[in-house]
Amino acid sequence: MSYDFDLFVIGAGSGGVRAARFAAGFGAKVAVAESRYLGGTCVNVGCVPKKLLVYGAHFADDFEQSKGFGWSVDKPSFDWQTLIANKNTEISRLNGIYRNLLVNSGVKLVEGHARLLDPNTVEVDGQRFSAKHILIATGGWPQIPDLPGREHAITSNEAFFLEQLPKRVIVVGGGYIAVEFAGIFQGLGSETTLLYRRDLFLRGFDDSVRKHLSEELTKRGMNLQFNADIARIDKLDDGSLKATLKDGRELEADCVFYATGRRPILDNLGLENTGVKLDDKGFIEVDDLFQTSEPSILALGDVIGRVQLTPVALAEGMAVARRLFKPEQYRPVDYEHIPTAVFSLPNIGTVGLTEQQARDKGHDVVIFESRFRPMQLSLTDCHERTLMKLVVDRQSDKVLGCHMVGPDAGEIIQGLAVALKAGATKQVFDETIGVHPTAAEEFVTMRTPVDA
Questions:
Q1: 401 burial class (0-12, 13-18, 19+ CB within 10 angstroms)?
Q2: CA distances in angstroms from 51 to 290, 313, 385, listed in the order given
Q3: 152 an active-site residue?
Q4: Annotated catalytic residue: which of 133, 152, 212, 436?
């Protein structure tokens, strides 16, 4: 049977664009449909604009700490509108880059909402296209729990376009998005409260990292409220918001920000016209080849709910393109040793197993841990401390996990991810000469186990 396209991709986010570009480069006839914005969540309302806001928030520290190094500056002031306008300009530039990447790769870009009519047919604003393979890469969307007054709350989508920086913010959630935005608001001058319904945020991260960050955020004046949740939100006469907690306490704020999970974007996608199945959490169910239960349809990225990180979606997109159109170059996606950064203030960088995960897997572990005040702060009044931790298997000497809380943690952990991927032992770390004076050298100079 003849088709209009070899591959039709629904969604022009990181994973979809990567699959489309490389499939076209391998000689396939490819189209991409996108109804919102090119680049997906990451470029538009995710990691890129968030990192720009994190940079903006960090300048408050830079101004304060410069005094210890002899700098004298007038009292700095911050303008939210300038930051948001400049951020918008940069995102528009990136949208253009994504458009050029697709068009210059020979991909047909169809702008509009795509809906599946059957396993090989897609309709976009009345136009019908047939394809041998259809790839669903529609991503995820933040959601607010169903509670009275939920219409008064915002998510990360709206936070990037607030007209004013709120004076008082309540951030609800315990994942990395909640922690990052709490740091952004706090750094830019908002009185910030972080609410989380469990004992401690960042579940799944190493416990030393979680506790250390909690201590550092408290030092910075952030109001951390654990084992707390909102029962209802009311708008007051002056326009501010009152959050009534489940324990009866009341908190007032100008903004209530929810980061309590994301759902897959499957709205009006037409899955009912296919044999595609969903898992018990509502994500598209795929096998190790990103194949759905419908032979002609694949899915990847946030919509499958596996590892919701941009570089992972990129790897998945590459794997799909190679398997379909360049099988001799196909390599499965390896989900082991995925490095992760949380752009909190201070940053978190982590790769490999946490201490608890290593123990749960049966490893006899040796823990190396260091906490210190970084040299950059030695001439300042700031008493922030950096944490570095190695989880090592006692029998093989293999380093199972590296964890850090401190300046540039994400930058530092990337190199260590290569070492762990290569199977480095603690001896290899010990025999590596450090770069002095840096914080990073602490990872190769830790010699005494904490449980010795």
A1: buried
A2: 30, 19, 22
A3: no
A4: 436
